[in-house]
Write a structure and sequence with these properties.
Order of helices and strands: HEEEHEHEEEEEHEEEE
Organism: Thermanaerovibrio velox DSM 12556
Helix content: 25-40%
Strand content: over 45%
Keywords: Signal
Protein name: DUF2993 domain-containing protein
Radius of gyration: 25 Å
Structural class: alpha+beta
Largest sheet: 7 strands, antiparallel
Oligomer: single chain
Pfam families: LmeA
Length: about 230
């Protein structure tokens, strides 16, 4: 009798384990799908994938718009509260990576002249940026000049900024008050304030044709939801 009881107990343990794992995977997949759908609703990206394992989520979103600028890719390694009912409260903390392409910066400024520029074009390199365009503004009187600029892109808490900038007209460097006035109309190049949850980006990395915000992300295994526009 004792042997039969032990055999039944062993069978119960054997079958309970897979059921529990399957239940956890189902919950993780449900949360991953919810986050994926919420990201599509908020940002209308071209593609998104979300992996969830307990209180961690790994998110990759491609072709989304932030502050009116197309972003090639964002990746997030996030601590989450799966019981939360909205995206802003679900993501408790995250480390992020972001890739912004030169062509998308130029496309944005080609369609938006609120900065006072027209025909503004940027060229991104590992050492910084170069830009040129026609700038119109009113100081004591109205001016329209062809400006050239160089500098670097810097990371600040609310986005990517032009920094250490020199503006030049016909080869002559312009004074600081003029530089500050122009920068007020351009910065930030990309605002991350549209992100509805906290994201830590550690540093800026520039290359030929792109700028990246990078962090130490750790890939995550688990149930994954995917969606494509």
């Amino acid at each position: 009798m004792r042997s039969l009881a032990l055999l039944l107990l062993g069978a119960l343990v054997l079958f309970a384990r897979p059921h529990s794992a399957m239940g956890g995977d189902a919950d993780n997949l449900k949360t991953a799908q919810w986050i994926c759908d919420a990201l599509f609703s908020r940002f209308s990206p071209e593609e998104a994938s979300v992996t969830v394992n307990g209180q961690r989520a790994f998110v990759t979103v491609k072709g989304l718009s932030l502050d009116g600028v197309r972003v090639e890719r964002i990746r997030l390694d996030a601590k989450i509260d799966p019981s939360a009912k909205d995206l802003s409260s679900m993501v408790l903390f995250s480390r992020g990576e972001l890739l912004l392409l030169e062509k998308d910066i130029n496309s944005y400024f080609a369609k938006n002249e609120e900065s006072g520029f027209r025909d503004l074009r940027f060229r991104l390199t590992p050492s910084g940026f170069e830009a040129q365009g026609i700038y119109s503004a009113k100081f004591i009187f109205n001016i329209t000049v062809r400006l050239k600029a160089n500098g670097v892109l810097a990371l600040k808490p609310d986005g990517i900024y032009l920094d250490q900038v020199g503006f030049f007209v016909e080869g002559r460097r312009q004074p600081e008050f003029f530089t500050n006035e122009v920068l007020r109309s351009l910065n930030p190049i990309l605002s991350t304030s549209d992100l509805p949850f906290p994201v830590l980006f550690k540093q800026v990395q520039m290359g030929d044709g792109y700028v990246a915000l990078i962090s130490d992300l750790i890939p995550l295994g688990g149930p994954t939801a995917r969606r494509v526009r």
